[in-house]
Design a protein that fits this description.
The structure holds 2 protein chains of 2 kinds.
Chain A lengths: L2 H12 L11 H26 L7 H11 L18 H15 L4 H12 L14 H31 L4 H11 L12
Chain B lengths: L1 H22 L19 E2 L6 E2 L9 E6 L4 H16 L4 E6 L15 H19 L5 E5 L3 H5 L7 E5 L5 E6 L4 H15 L2
Parallel strand pairs in B: 3-4, 4-5
Antiparallel strand pairs in B: 1-2, 3-6, 6-7
Classes of the chains: A mainly alpha, B alpha/beta.
């Protein structure tokens, strides 16, 4: 209970208006709170700052690591890249990739290393070959198929429209309807 | 007739496509290692002061089973492996995968290498005592490095390795009696001919 006298004293110094209130006044409480907050921040902040500083040992390595791991799929969370995933396996992969970068291996060698162990599935952009040809060309084929069907349908509909000719009777009806002077009820158009 | 039939055919095709797609297991990623030589390693043996490598099994058909005491599915498959090891004369080697650091409960920043190794041995031995030991021996892969060489991504995993040291099959996830009788046993029998 040492905080209370300390706080009341601070209040009095910082906010003389507070003295007018006999009991614990709202401004006094607010200042007390503000001081407490300030104290808390000033004491605790450096600790936070220390924790939130994951400085990379070598920025260039980290940059390459990010680029490579963005190409690789995490097999635990299959819709995340190694760069995005926080799964244990992704951590291990990043550690392996970092080690290989430090050993001076090329990006291609590192990708090959992963593919040799986990298959083409580990890559977000798998190579084009027999088993992946449908994956690469499928969307294009579907687009061409869709367009062909659409064009054929539109052509056929167009032909159907232009083929139908008006009979003289129909033509007369249209002319009557389109004549601006009077409509069928004999009312003047607006 | 044709006009109404085509959308129906299209719809049926779509249903079949989606039904097949939904019944595939996305976890079942085909391993490129099947048909390739099993990666070599030299890891400490659990409960002994020596090392083991796949070369030690040359000339034998054997199973490599990846396990850990923190792995829930391993507990599910364990009785099946214990039963298997009692009935069938095929050596099963355990690859204990990241026994300590795989367990999310343990703060690794406070654990050094020596403590980790000691803790791993204790935990693994205790688990095997509790649940039975189907393994001829188990090796400790503390950091999961050997696991990566074998393409491990979901414990438990089981590999069948032939007499020449070639991986013949990989199964991801717990071994079920069904998989044992329809896939593993026939393949082992064939390889042992």
């Amino acid at each position: 209970m040492t905080a209370k006298p300390f706080a009341t004293e601070t209040c009095r110094e910082a906010n003389p208006a507070g003295q007018r209130h006999k009991e614990n006044s709202p401004p006094c409480a607010a200042v007390f709170f503000a001081v407490l907050c300030a104290l808390f921040v000033s004491v605790v902040n450096p600790v936070f700052a220390k924790e939130a500083a994951p400085l990379a040992a070598d920025p260039l390595t980290e940059k390459r690591l990010m680029a490579i791991s963005a190409e690789l799929r995490c097999l635990v969370c299959q819709n995340q890249t190694i760069a995005d995933s926080n799964a244990d396996l992704a951590n291990d992969f990043r550690r392996e990739i970092r080690t290989m970068i430090n050993q001076g291996r090329s990006d291609q060698e590192i990708l090959d290393f992963m593919v040799a162990r986990y298959g083409d599935f580990v890559r977000y952009r798998p190579p084009m070959k027999g088993t992946t040809i449908l994956l690469w060309l499928g969307p294009g084929l579907l687009l061409v198929l869709g367009l062909t069907v659409l064009v054929r349908y539109l052509r056929r509909r167009n032909d159907a429209i232009s083929d139908s000719k008006l009979s003289p009777e129909e033509q007369r009806q249209i002319d009557a309807l389109l004549t601006p002077s009077q409509d069928s009820q004999g009312n003047k158009p607006q | 007739m044709n006009k109404f039939l085509w959308p129906l055919v299209g719809f049926a095709a779509l249903v079949v496509l989606l039904a097949v797609g939904l019944n595939l297991n996305p976890r079942d990623v085909p391993s490129p290692l099947v048909g390739k030589p099993a990666a070599t390693f030299s890891l400490p043996v659990l409960g002994a002061d020596r090392k083991f490598g796949p070369e030690d099994m040359q000339g034998k058909v054997w199973l490599l089973n990846v396990w850990a005491s923190w792995c829930v599915s391993c507990r599910a498959e364990h009785p099946i492996l214990v039963e298997f090891s009692k009935k069938i004369d095929v050596p099963v080697i355990g690859l204990n995968y990241k026994e300590v650091r795989g367990d999310g409960e343990i703060d690794m920043s406070k654990t050094d290498g020596e403590t980790e190794a000691k803790l791993a041995r204790e935990r693994a031995a205790k688990w095997l005592k509790q649940h039975g030991n189907p393994y001829q021996l188990s090796v400790l892969d503390l950091d999961g490095r050997v696991g990566i060489d074998y393409g491990v991504y979901g414990v438990p995993e089981t590999y069948i390795i032939d007499k020449a040291g070639i991986i013949r099959m990989k199964h991801t996830g717990p071994v079920t009696p069904d998989i044992l009788s329809t896939k593993i046993l026939p393949l082992v029998a064939e390889l042992n001919k």
